[in-house]
Amino acid sequence: MKKIFLLIAVLALSLVVVACGAANKNNNQTQDKQNVEDNNNDVTNGTAGNAGTDGNAGTNGTDKNTGANTNKQTNAENSEGLAKMDELDYLEFNLDIEYGTQDEYDVELERNKDGTIEAEIEDSINGVRKEGTDAFNELYPLVKKLTIDQQTSKEDAITEVLDVFNLKNDYTKFEVDITFKDGTKIEFVDTK
């Protein structure tokens, strides 16, 4: 009888530990999406990140070198990031380029209706993965350079994106989705 009680206690404890770990992971992901404002302070080399999403910071969002919490953004930083997004002609910019079967360049920059900003870079060509502030800081100046509008041709849009993002034109699939401030959406897809 004691063995059955012990087995039930161990199983219950295991479930509690797993549930707490999953809840913490979901909480960190939510914080990542809410904390993607421009931060031009001391995090420039990717050694810190929001909840460890860049692969170099711990899971609690603390810089390994200084112990500083990098998850918290001030209202001024949030306002600055939103002000920069207001300078763009786009609410959303999504780019997905495939090179063969293994290399891909995928980026997203989006201002949500709730006032949060999402930014993400997945670049398997150069082994780069960034989210949050680091991704925003890299993507914002590139997207700001784009002059694509509703009248831009597919060929011109592809050429401009490749030039601005400094990417090769030997892709196997190219896809860019843009949502403008007026709600108009355009999509250009090309395969080779």
**What's the count of strands?**
6
Helical region count? 4
Strand content range: 15-25%
State the end-to-end distance.
68 Å
User: Structural class given helices, strands, pairing?
Assistant: alpha+beta
Mean pLDDT: 73
For the biggest β-sheet, the strand order reads: 4-3-2-1-5-6
> What general outline do the C-alpha atoms trace?
globular
Q: What ranges have pLDDT less than 50 throughout 5 or more consecutive residues?
A: 22-74
Q: Could you give a short account of the major beta sheet?
A: 6 strands, antiparallel
H/E element string? HHEEEEHHEE
Topology:
Blueprint: H1 2-34, H2 75-87, E1 90-99, E2 103-111, E3 117-123, E4 128-131, H3 132-145, H4 154-164, E5 173-180, E6 185-191
Written overview of the protein:
With 192 residues, the chain is of the alpha+beta class. It has a domain of 117 residues. It contains 4 helices and 6 strands; from the N terminus they run ααββββααββ. It has a 6-stranded antiparallel beta sheet. It starts with a helix and ends with a strand. About 28% of the residues have low confidence.
In short:
This protein has 192 residues and is α+β, with helices and mostly antiparallel strands.
Index terms:
alpha+beta
